[in-house]
Amino acid sequence: MSTSSPQIPNAKVAVIGGTGMNQWPGLAIIESVVVETPYGAPSAPLVKGRIAGVEAIFLARHGEGHKIPPHAINYRANLWALKAAGVQNVIAIAAVGSIAEWFAPGDVTVPDDVIDYSWGREHSYSDGSIGSELKHVEFEHPYAPVLRKSLLDAAQAAAVAAHDGGTMAVTQGPRLESPAEIRRLKQDGCAMVGMTGMPEAGLAAELGLAYACLAVSVNWAPGIGSGDIHGQIELWVATSMAKVRAILERALPVLAS
Ligand code: HPA
User: Fold this and answer.
1) Range of the domain at 23
2) What's the domain count of the chain?
3) pLDDT, tens digit, for every residue of 117-136?
């Protein structure tokens, strides 16, 4: 679906799609543009499309064909490209494992905090390179409160039950966690675990982008539930992404106006 053009598309809202949302059925594609940034190439072309009557940019976090593992994603290029496209609001879709009892597979939440357990990723634009500035960016609200509220309002308008909050643990992947690792995350207060939430949220903060996440649980984290984790992931990815699309179809017209 990629056609090359030097012109970066322009839109106010972007959706970064993850596992289960690598493509967006129903998105009427206007253009698909391969973009270069000072940090290299984003995961995929920026796809500008129309959904629910408004224009938005869609970026497949794991690349076309879902091939890029969480630790190898060029998060800096992804966020930089969205900023260059004039985006102000970034909605990140994340398929996660459930740690907290209140957040069962199939549930949706809009997390309100994050702990980064990942390592070795290019996680900042303040990298000491020539011309880069040293910025100690504030991260008291890793997920923009106004954007979070828009997502929660959109869920309500779409009659999709969504939890409000929860701390996201971000692990390195691509392997899943051991039960002891999950016990530690639980003790740390994490309600869910994914592999891509950081450095994405931190880089968005550095660029001054409003960033929020729609997290969908697709399994009980290892050691919490019983049964085949991959079977759970397959089932819940297939059945839950319709909820995400319903929320986005209500949120985008508000955010793009
Ligand atoms: N752990 C980490 N990342 C995940 C999981 C999990 O259990 N499920 C979906 N993404």
Assistant:
1) 13-256
2) 1
3) 999 999 999 988 877 888 89
